[in-house]
Here is the input.
Amino acid sequence: MDMPVVNECAVEDCAYNREHACHAMAITVGDPGHARCDTFFASPSKGGDPSATGRVGACKMSGCRHNADLECRAPGITVGYVQTEADCLTYAPA
Here is the structure.
């Protein structure tokens, strides 16, 4: 199984975000009841591999239609703000 790609990330203040692209090797999505990007953190310096595109390594949102055995099966995801939280915008209740 290939890990889904983070197609776009609109959370510009994330340490892994450069020009709306995620450069973390793998992100984790989910918090009990909330499709938050658990890998998000604000930092003045940028991290990750600038030559790599971020992928979804784990998803704790078992109630999402893209989730199978706590793995994301969507072809790709988008991360952006829902109010003040960095969320997986691809999340869809099962």
